[in-house]
Design a protein that fits this description.
Length: 688
């Protein structure tokens, strides 16, 4: 009997243990009974106890476990947990029941991290964390881990409830930090060192004692996107001794003693579409911050400089530096930087200050670009727009006829006569995975061209119709440039312009080509002057061939390598799709007339019309399944319409009158109410 009872007890224990592994969810509440954590009643009383239970069960159950932590106001305890938590188990999710405003973790020891994560694939979300205040302690620390997600946490939120650092990443790769709030921490709000490929997205990092986000030694290929950095004691974003990171669409406000974004000994970064306003300096590049791309940013109302430039070989493309920056740009001991298509507008004193510059600055593009301006096509080197410039533009190409004098020693020989938005530049920039985009702000990386081999880059969209790249003369080729990581012999590299079909992606030569000349790591080139066409449905393609005996690395992304077509013709890539055929043109001759009525009569009364029989050979115009009065009515609407006729109100020429036309009209509105009449009369006509 005793053995039988022991067996039943063993069986019961086994079932409970089995259920705990199968459920994969454990609960934490500070008033729980701490008896297994499978329900709120049996919940663990500390988060660490639940983590330990998950670790203990992981040997026989390798699947993911979720830990739900009770919040205040739910009946599941106070929502306050005073402990330091260590998470070593992979594939673990720890989340609060009701979010960070009802769930708090206070570090029991202020000298260690409040939450320390050393397991991969961990998700930690929706807590308020504070009390890790000693040097080098953090609210959340990720140590040598991969593919973790930290989201929707408050890691410090006022001058009392704070940490030394908000979130700390060291080593590891491919982690995601998103929608966290890090306020009032003594050091950095978010601190990265030695990390690769992490995503720092949509965090609010403000009022830190040091920089808001600090990226340190050997951190590479991290993305900082859409973060808000406000009123941190030093910089909004600070990057030191690191390469190849991307800073995009961040907002940096009110760093009144330092720069919003600071790069030091930091190379090959792409800094794009950031807003830096009301800081001491919008951007500073200091101490060998070289080969960076700064494109499409707004630097506004900064007390000293929009840009402080103390480094070399950077490029600035299409930035707006305006609105009471004391100096638009301040250059000191810098050389061989390139500035093109930037807008210097209404800065307070003078737009520029130069002191001890080493020379060689390029205040315009180093090669010509092809662009559309005032409905005409031009090819020219392009400088920058300066609101003080009052020169003429007699030939109407959008480039001032006289240089803009920057100082006694420097000038922009190709100043823009208009703001950059009025120039439509056509150029392709090789980026990752064999693609080319028309934006220079893709993340930078190195692309290997194997010895005796080639790499091919395709446009990211195919041609909608045949696109012809004509030339004005035999001298009118494609212009471009290419950057390598070391000095190479240019004669071993050939560049060919062609296309690739959509199905196989195989390169088809036949366009213009060029060989690089000289020995360098940075080349400008111009191809032969040959016209060619990209057939509809195909991709523009560039093939770069390395005939040397050693593999070489070229830099793609960041806009350093590009091509721009000749100026013989202009059609915005990928072209304008042909208008759809008129559905009432049943015989496909371009007109709706008696011949189409005769065709409709022959099909009259047919049913079972569908895609398999082309809707009764197109006679079922309204796709009702039957050829009848509805189709005759549509034939009457389009009666005598020819290939160039449009419905009144079809402003965008797509043979439909709908909201797309309203949007077009809104953008062109002159205040004339008569413009509304055809729009209203033909509203929703078209049936295309």
């Amino acid at each position: 009997m005793k053995a039988h009872v022991n067996y039943l007890l063993f069986l019961s224990f086994s079932l409970v243990f089995y259920n705990s592994l199968s459920a994969k969810t454990l609960y934490v509440a500070d008033h729980g009974s701490n008896t297994g954590g499978l329900t709120w009643e049996t919940a663990f009383t500390t988060i660490q106890a639940a983590v330990n239970a998950a670790v203990a069960g992981s040997a026989s159950d390798p699947n993911a476990v979720t830990i739900i932590v009770g919040s205040s106001g739910t009946g599941h305890g106070s929502g306050i947990y005073i402990e330091n938590i260590s998470v070593s188990l992979a594939h673990l999710t720890i989340e609060s029941e009701s979010g960070p405003l009802q769930t708090f973790i206070q570090a029991k020891s202020n000298s260690t991290h409040a939450v320390s994560i050393t397991g991969n694939f961990v998700t930690f979300r929706s807590f308020s964390i504070y009390g890790a205040t000693s040097n080098n302690a953090a609210a959340i620390a990720l140590i040598g881990v991969n593919s973790c997600t930290i989201e929707n946490n408050r890691c410090g939120w006022d001058s009392t409830n704070k940490n030394y650092r908000g979130i700390f990443l060291t080593g590891g790769a491919n982690n995601t930090l998103q929608k966290n709030l890090c306020f009032y921490n003594t050091n950095a709000g978010i601190y990265l060192t030695g990390t690769t490929g992490n995503r720092i997205l949509s965090n609010d990092v403000s009022f830190s004692g040091q920089s808001g986000i600090t990226v340190q030694v050997g951190s590479t290929r991290n993305l900082l996107f859409n973060n808000i950095l406000e009123a941190n004691h030093i910089h909004g974003i600070e990057i030191d001794d690191s390469d190849l990171n991307t800073l995009q669409s961040n907002t940096c406000l009110s760093h009144q003693d330092y720069a919003a974004i600071s790069l030091s000994n930091a190379k090959y970064h792409v800094i794009s579409q950031n807003l830096c306003t009301s800081n001491s300096r919008g951007l500073e590049l200091i101490s060998a911050a070289n080969y960076n791309t700064i494109t499409g940013n707004y630097f506004e109302n900064n007390a000293l400089y929009g840009i402080e430039l103390r480094s070399s070989r950077n490029q600035f493309i299409g930035n707006i530096i305006r609105g009471n920056n004391t100096y638009g740009i301040y250059c000191y001991e810098s050389e061989q930087n390139t500035l093109t298509r930037n807008q210097f507008d209404d800065n307070t004193a003078t737009a520029f200050l130069y002191y001890r510059m080493a020379g060689g600055e390029n205040w315009h593009s180093q090669t010509p670009f092809t662009y559309l301006y005032s409905d005409a096509v031009f090819s020219c080197k392009m400088g920058n727009y300066y609101s003080p410039y009052d020169g003429s533009d007699l030939d109407g190409n959008g480039i001032g006829d006289t240089p803009f004098l920057l100082s006694a020693l420097f000038q922009d020989s190709f100043p823009l006569a208009d703001s950059g938005a009025n120039y439509k530049v056509q150029a392709w920039y090789p980026a990752s995975e064999g693609l080319m985009t028309m934006e220079p702000n893709q993340p930078g990386q190195w692309q290997t061209i194997p010895a005796g081999g080639s790499v091919i880059f395709l446009s990211d969209t195919p041609a909608l119709g045949e696109i012809n790249f004509d030339v004005l003369s035999s001298e009118d080729g494609w212009n471009g440039q290419i950057l390598f990581n070391t000095t190479v012999s240019g004669s071993t590299f050939q560049i060919q312009i062609g296309y690739a079909d959509a199905a196989e992606g195989l390169f088809v030569a036949g366009g213009p080509s060029a060989k690089l000349s000289g020995s360098a790591n940075f080349f400008q080139f111009k191809t032969s002057g040959a016209a060619f066409a990209v057939p509809a449905g195909n991709f523009l393609a560039v093939q770069i061939t390395n005939s040397s005996s050693a593999g070489r690395q070229m830099y793609v992304g960041g806009g350093w390598t590009y091509i721009t077509p000749p100026a013989g013709a202009w059609e915005a890539w990928p072209g304008t799709p042909p208008p759809p055929a008129n559905p009432a043109d049943l015989n496909d001759d371009g007109w709706v007339n008696i011949k189409d009525l005769a065709f409709l009569s022959l099909q009259w009364g047919m049913d079972n019309c569908g895609a398999e029989n082309q809707y009764c050979q197109t006679a079922d115009i309204d796709h009702s399944g039957t050829v009848g009065l509805g189709d005759l009515q549509l034939l009457a609407i389009f009666w005598l319409m020819g290939p160039d006729d449009l419905l009144g109100g079809d402003f965008n020429s797509d043979f439909r009158v709908n909201l797309d036309d309203w949007v077009w009209l809104s953008s062109q509105w002159t205040g004339d109410l008569n413009q509304l009449i055809p729009l209203c009369e033909n509203w929703l006509k078209g049936v295309f």
